[in-house]
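Hi team,

As requested, here is the filled-out complex form for the magnesium ion run. I kept the field names the same as last time so the parser does not choke. Let me know if anything looks off before we queue the next batch.

— J.
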Amino acid sequence: MTDNLRKAFPGLLAILFLAVVPLLSVPPFWITLLNNIGLASLVAIGLVLLTGVGGLTSFGQAAFCGFGAYTTAVLTTAYGFSPWITLPLSLLIGALLALPLGLITVRLSGHFLPLGTIAWGLALYYLFGQIELIGRFDGISGIPPLEFAGYRFLSGKSIYYVIWFFVIATALGARNLLDSRIGRGIRALRGGGQAAEAFGVDIVRAKLTVFVLAGIVAALSGWLYAHMQRSVNPTPFGLNMGIEYLLMAVVGGAGQIWGAIFGAGIVLLLKEILQRYLPELIGSAANFEMIVFGVLLVAILQISRDGLWPLVRKLSPERPDRQIAAPAGSLPRRAMPADGTSLLRIDQARKEFGGLVAVSNVSFEVKSGQIVGLIGPNGAGKSTTFNLITGMLPLTSGSIFYAGEKLSGMSPRRIARHGIARTFQHAKILPTMSVLENVALGAHLRGNAGVFRSFLHLERQEEATLLREAAHQLERVGLAAHLHRPAGDLALGQIRILEIARALCLDPTVLLLDEPAAGLRHAEKQELCLLLKKLKQEGVSVLLVEHDMGFVMGLVDHLVVLDFGTLIAEGRPAEVRQNPAVIAAYLGGVAA
Ligand code: ADP
Ligand code: MG
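And here is what came back:
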């Protein structure tokens, strides 16, 4: 078997199983259950994108099913539309309503975000029950079945195929999307998205994208539901179902597309079994099944916090490392600015945190082709200066220029476009994502494939060039042996080097490195030193924060010393080292 076939084998088996089930004489009850699992899977796939991958927890997804279901219910019963015409309209309504809801929701943070979704989830449920046009709490009945070339999808068995066609198509598309440049941006939202922003990902837009996509697939589920059930009322679109959908995604494994289908299957099967057998065991005086249901789910999550799908995957044979396809061409490179021109100019930069002045009217310059060291004791304001230059923090006063253009006030992502790339003192990587993909995030601005092309995997050539570039930069920094390992498996020093490779993927003119040598062994430090010298030869300018004086001295052209936010000395390394104020600051730092 070829690798591709072996990889696809479990999937093909699952599809074959799904295809033959209705042909066997299984009781209709099973078909109904499978139909419900399919419908729920669609919503859960959306939630995997939104919650599992994007980190945005939503309890309100059932409302989007309602938008899809009611759109087709109204248009087919009151206006005589054909169901196939209402399909795009239902999805469009889902998307259009997701936009304003998303705009409000994605700006919330922490626990306000799930609370926000509960609020609109509840409100929309009651709204469905109040609108005359959609039959208030009675709903709408008499919805026509789907029809194709004269065939009416009236039976559970026939609509089964329609439902599962959409489930599989959606799952494949969602998987494609995650496995793309856009998907990397979405995945990088976890953990705050600062790294994503520093490499040019528009994080509000990425969040809105997943929010709208989750809304669209939920609307699709609602559209199918309306034509399966042939009547709708508000009950299935309330908060209860919203919670259940979220459980499905979490039980399956919140970050796994196939886990969504698995989770929907487990949860609905469990519910069915409990509702059937529990009353026989302990009587039907109360709704015991909800209690048992809850306890079982907690137990499942205790066994595996990442849901059950990862456990299932462990049973399947080891997958071969993904091969990077040969790219069609190479990525265009930025023209390097002429040596010696002023590249970065920090002019009276000031940053106050409440009463604390972290950076106090600091001015200095990085000329192109230079390596400039920024040193000073802990808390001197070095990392804050980096955050000001890259736009992660707004300046209190002063300005920053790049080649004469004012950067201050721009978003981190616009600043990154100028060719300014950085590493973080506290590494910001995605531990579960491969080393290669973590680094490829750095090349985000060098691709342009959008959601649609990614969903259909029409951007494979571009993706191959981006991955090639990431692999090339990893080779360059000496991490070629680790491309396919989860980044979290690397040693701390290696993670810092990974961040340098990621920054190099941006094709930078200026590289800002925040303590890159911390945690490196002596030999590794020397390699880093050689790499930085080589980058300098290629015309890349470097601003380097470092504690190790020895490391800095032999490397930098110019040294800037900060102490308590104030610039106390700058000049050639040899001169600065003799400066009494510098000696005092360093000795003072040691004495303290
Ligand atoms: P360095 O990188 O030179 O060690 P930093 O720039 O991280 O120093 O910090 C400078 C000062 O600003 C420190 O006193 C630190 O506690 C403070 N500081 C840094 N970031 C913040 C923040 N986000 N909020 C409040 N104070 C901060
Ligand atoms: Mg620092």
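Two things worth flagging: Residues 382-383, 425 surround magnesium ion (ligand 2) (CB under 6 Å). The first helix runs from residue 3 to 20.

Thanks,
J.
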